[in-house]
Amino acid sequence: MKTLVAYFSQTGQTKKVADAIYESIEGDKELKEFSEVESLEGYDLSFIGFPIIAFGPAAQGKEFLEQKAAGKKVALFITHAAPEDQEGIGAWLDKCKEAAAGAELVGFFDCQGELSEQIAEFLMKNEDPTMRSFGERRPETIGQPDESRLQRARDFAKEVMGKV
Ligand SMILES: Cc1cc2nc3c(=O)[nH]c(=O)nc-3n(C[C@H](O)[C@H](O)[C@H](O)COP(=O)(O)O)c2cc1C
């Protein structure tokens, strides 16, 4: 059984989840950024992670799934600055699942990740009030994903490994 953990992470939050998943996988495994992955051939299972950007999958995540994941066993992990129980977030996550429609989706995980200072400042200058209010919410995201979320990610990885 050979497992890949592949991720795209602009500010390091999704990478923290990727590391947590990677460390709890047993057996033959590799941890790579998207840019280092040519194809998913040769892996029995791939954990694929990226952030939510503008209410849907990061373009890099969508592209990666559409180009490489067809017919492959895939488990997704997603980070977003909004709290997990925020209204409307289900639609953003559904778009991530849609991008993986050609794959065999064997697991799905999402959690909050910190909104970086730089991005928050950028958003607060936006003309769109929705974007501005989003930027203002940085303080409540600081320190995420915290240890409890990383533990959930480890448990998720073990559950998927047990299933596949
Ligand atoms: C341009 C941009 C747009 C974003 N849009 C959203 C969004 O619509 N909803 C959300 O919850 N988080 C949004 N975020 C926040 C990121 O999803 C969050 O901070 C994530 O944990 C960052 O992961 P990374 O460090 O791995 O890139 C956005 C971030 C950026 C940079």
As a percent range, the share of helical residues equals 25-40%
Percentage of β-strand residues: 15-25%
Q: Could you tell me the radius of gyration in angstroms?
A: 15 Å
Runs with pLDDT <50, length 5+?
none
CATH H-level superfamily: Flavodoxin domain
Q: Tell me the number of strands.
A: 5
CATH architecture: 3-Layer(aba) Sandwich
Largest sheet descriptor? 5 strands, parallel
Shape: globular
The number of distinct helices, counting runs of at least 4 residues, comes to: 6
Number of domains: 1
How do the strands of the widest beta sheet line up side by side?
A: 2-1-3-4-5
Quick summary of this structure?
This protein is an alpha/beta fold and 164 residues long. It contains 6 helices and 5 strands, in the order βαββαβαβααα.
Task: Explain how this protein is built.
- The protein is an alpha/beta fold.
- It has one domain: Flavodoxin domain (Rossmann fold, 3-Layer(aba) Sandwich).
- It is about 40% helix and about 20% strand.
- The protein has 6 helices and 5 strands, in the order βαββαβαβααα.
- It has helices spanning about 15-25, 60-70, 90-100, 115-125, 130-135, 145-164; strands at about 1-5, 30-35, 45-50, 75-80, 105-110.
- Strands 2-1-3-4-5 form a 5-stranded parallel β-sheet, with helices on both faces.
- Strand 3 (about 45-50), helix 2 (about 60-70) and strand 4 form a beta-alpha-beta unit.
- Helix 1 packs across helix 6 and helix 4 (about 115-125) packs antiparallel against helix 5.
- The longest helix is centred in the last third of the chain and has 17 residues, at about 145-164.
- The protein is globular and about 50 Å long.
- Bound molecules: flavin mononucleotide.
- Flavin mononucleotide binds next to helix 1 and strand 4.
